């Protein structure tokens, strides 16, 4: 009798799970809002060296007294079945209240990125100080290692994946297959679903979705940027390295921030 009850319970659970799976909605169009959080205390501390600590340490201490530890920036990712458009949301208050540290590459959001996930191509408009570049190239090839860790982000269960980009930047990403579009914030792509969370632990930066709006998206909402000096990724790297050659120990951090 107990054996029959156990079988009945198992069948009921299976039926419920099947019904839930059948009714699950898989979004193929919509708008995702992300929050980029930058640990400014850690970012500034990273800039301190034996050669500059006499003035950088007091600057950090003063910053800690007057400013919050984390800087928050907003952005959106508009997506359809095979196209995405990542755009920063301009903070008008910040323009009129610029603080020391706001011009660090990692503490800004200067990229507008259009990606064709089916073709594996991207068009990125990158603002690098006074210059604007229009980078047309293939999408970055990332060798993701998918794990069993699950995290809920903006109402979606997301699986964790790890990777190394640009030879030295450790990336943790969380993606959901309930949004079957291989996109994500900035230029992070290549997973079997939408990336809703990205963390660069050693760069002190994260991007996490705060909301997902499942709605139809018209073609006019997915227009690639057109302004900027045309280059590909290789040409941009060469240009930036030449511009940063006199930056000493700061050059590598600046280069990584602009190439994300």
Key attributes of the depicted protein:
globular, 37% strand, single chain, alpha+beta, 260 residues
What is the topology?
Layout (H helix, E strand, L loop, with lengths): L1 H22 L6 E10 H7 L6 H14 L3 E10 L3 E6 L3 H5 L14 E6 L4 E8 L2 E8 L6 E9 L2 E10 L3 E8 L17 E7 L4 E10 L14 E3 L1 H11 L7 H9 L1
Parallel strand pairs: 6-12
Antiparallel strand pairs: 1-2, 1-11, 2-3, 3-4, 4-5, 5-6, 7-8, 8-9, 9-10, 10-11
Give an account of the 3D structure.
- The chain is α+β, with helices and mostly antiparallel strands.
- It has 6 helices and 12 strands.
- It has helices at about 1-25, 40-45, 55-65, 90-95, 235-245, 250-260; strands at about 30-40, 70-80, 85-90, 110-115, 120-130, 130-140, 145-155, 155-165, 170-175, 195-200, 205-215, 230.
- A hairpin with a 2-residue loop joins β7 and β8 (about 155-165).
- It starts with a helix and ends with a helix.
Short description:
26% of the residues lie in helices and 37% in strands. It is of the alpha+beta class.
Number of strands: 12
Compute the gyration radius: what is it? 21 Å
Shape: globular
**What percentage of the residues does DSSP assign to strands (E)?**
35-45%
The biggest beta sheet is recorded as: 12 strands, mixed
Order of helices and strands: HEHHEEHEEEEEEEEEHH
Count of alpha and pi helical runs? 6
Q: Into which percent range does the helicity of residues fall? A: 25-40%
Structural class: alpha+beta
Distance between the termini: 62 Å
Mean pLDDT: 87
